[in-house]
Specification:
The structure is a homodimer. Helix content of chain A is about 25%, strand content about 25%. Chain A is an alpha+beta fold. Chain A has 2 domains: about 5-165, 60s Ribosomal Protein L30, Chain: A (2-Layer Sandwich), CATH 3.30.1330; about 180-340, PurM-like C-terminal domain (Phosphoribosyl-aminoimidazole Synthetase, Chain A, domain 2). In chain A, β1 (about 55-60) and β2 (about 65-75) form a beta hairpin. In chain A, α2 runs parallel beside α3. The first copy, chain A, is globular and about 55 Å long. The first copy, chain A, starts with about 30 loop residues before the first helix and ends in a 13-residue tail after the last strand. Chains A and B meet through α1, β1, β2, β3 and β4 of A and α1, β1, β2, β3 and β4 of B.
């Protein structure tokens, strides 16, 4: 392999890209993130696993079906009400594995640390990872630490990757939404994004909102065991919020989605913060919520099960999958009107996770 | 979970650490890296998998034995003679999985990109990952992209994690060195570290040395299939070089190691560069070499097999495992003397991988 890597049959997709340099929005979970995935990563790594575009890959190794997922965490600040980058890095990957109904088992942890980072802070973060992994029932089994010179990284970034065991035979993925399905969200939305914003020093507003960062694997496993094949899809609405997740799944399933605004659980203090900051809660990140798309016949049963769980007490049905193959997400407003909830475009909140 | 994470039964190990902030040497693969692992990460994530201290974890999922590994790559510069951060990120994790004799199957890829990074460079790097993964026979099946503001990361960092299938029942790990074993290195050492140093703009010296970055999984799998249980350990001597890898394995196995200086393959131009820069090649990073510790009775057979492979043509026996439970690595010099080859201490080469 030479310095000048030669493509064989693949040409640089730069002409297909809207920008010729990376923008903050390429990491926001919105349209530019999609463009990067669809025009750059997918053509390069073309394979049957990536093509499903879920937040995890379903792979077969030996005789076992596994879920495999990764996320890097660059959240700023590192410590925030409700958690820190360490607990977030455990919960995030546990939840990505959970979206396919897998049982998360093992995590890796890769640290990129800026020279001069306080050892005591590293310990607090690692200790939170310990606590979070104990609570989620996963083991951190392998890791790596890199240190870069001062000014070459912002304090600490963590990558976690995870392996889960898929013990069911159901089709639970973002391309499996069926008209008539109900859409459940497991609790109040937009807490994480607002908590992070409030924690940023440059913002003057104060709020009591805490991040919802939490492991959802017990909830999802219980659901898969009891409601089984009637669960059609699950997704944790992180970057880009509920809006991005529903748009992605609707498009992948060639269906549309109708949401009822007055059913969507938003804490009053989150609603207020969103109004002050000019955000729509549907676009704000969550780190302890799951969207669960379930056959209408099993929706009440699923809701009942979900509400038994620590992180599902405020679960509610927020909408329904509808006919219409254009992947549209429509919101019925409290006033009786309708508006389209598009994929997020342009600058969202950087470094929210 | 609250902002102030509470330890339960674990206390902060800061008093055990030599420094109260992270130093570049904590990422160098030497003594401070060991301290971080042994005093901070291991007590936190205490489990039977981590305790083997190999560069991968051996886990059982369902009925399959898997190898699981991760590495973050922060190499500077991103492009260097013999590869770039993308090919390096594929080879590195493939090789870590190979150290246990696993068959690498699937990789994840997590990107942390600085705002403003050129799209064309990202494509060159991703295309190298495609090429490297094709050559190694692995699939990149899941990924994640984060973007941070200008100045908050240095261009691009990549994390890869990997899953391999372990199809053998042998004990191949760093704690399994036996007195009398031969130590094989699969080719010339120190090429990668010297190539990176030469590529750094601030360094004025020029050399024709290329990085040895390469996938070693075909070589190691062949060896496991043909030499089998006579292979006692394998390790790719990356950060900290041959010296760190042999010290770690000798200590883990409670044996000592004796190396013959005149048997260690070092290219003349690498030797010259090391002399100019004041480095010992034994401490310089490799990214396409494997140390293979094999029962003496099978050493010649193993060497013969290794030399059939593209990346093993210059393999040679460089030393032997000896009695003596102190984990010492001793070098017999060309002049007939002896010197101790310690674990690297203090500042090694930052951002070499």
């Amino acid at each position: 392999m030479s310095d000048e890597t030669q493509s064989e049959g693949l040409t640089c997709p730069a002409p297909l890209m809207k920008y010729d340099t990376i923008q903050l929005s390429h990491g926001s979970g919105g349209l530019l993130s999609q463009e990067l995935t669809n025009n750059l990563f997918r053509p390069a790594f073309d394979n049957e696993y990536l093509s499903r575009l879920d937040d995890h890959a379903l792979v077969t190794v030996g005789s076992s079906r596994l879920s495999f997922s990764t996320d890097s965490y660059v959240v700023s600040p590192l410590f925030f009400p409700g958690g820190n980058i360490g607990s977030l890095a455990v919960h995030g990957t546990v939840n990505d594995l959970s979206t396919g109904g897998a049982r998360p088992l093992f995590l890796s942890a890769g640290y990129i640390i800026e020279e001069g980072f306080p050892m005591a802070d590293l310990w607090r973060i690692v200790d939170s990872m310990r606590e979070a992994s104990l609570k989620a029932g996963v083991k951190i089994v392998t890791g790596d630490t890199k240190v870069v010179d001062r000014g070459k990284a912002d304090k600490l970034f963590i990558n976690t990757a995870g392996i889960g065991l898929v013990e069911h035979e159901h089709e639970i993925h973002g391309g499996n939404l069926q008209p008539g399905d109900d859409i459940i969200v497991t609790g109040h939305i937009a807490d994480h994004g607002i908590a992070i914003l409030a924690a940023r020093e440059e913002l003057s507003f104060q709020t009591s909102v805490q991040s919802d960062s939490a492991p959802l694997n017990k909830l999802t496993l219980d659901l898969v065991e009891t409601v089984g094949a009637k669960i059609h899809a699950m997704r944790d609405p992180t970057r880009g919020g509920v809006a991005a997740s529903l748009n992605e799944m609707a498009a992948a399933s060639s269906v549309s989605v109708c949401l009822a605004e007055n059913q969507i659980p938003v804490r009053p203090e989150v609603q207020s913060a969103c109004e002050i900051l000019g955000f729509d809660p549907l676009y704000v990140a969550n780190e302890g919520k799951m969207l669960i798309i379930v056959d209408h016949s099993s929706a009440e049963n699923a809701l009942h099960r979900i509400r038994q769980h620590e992180y599902g007490k405020d679960a509610t049905i927020i909408g329904r999958v509808t006919e219409g193959n254009r992947g549209r997400v429509v919101l019925r407003t409290a006033l009786g009107g309708e508006r389209i909830v598009d994929m997020p475009v342009g600058q969202q909140l950087p470094r929210i996770c």
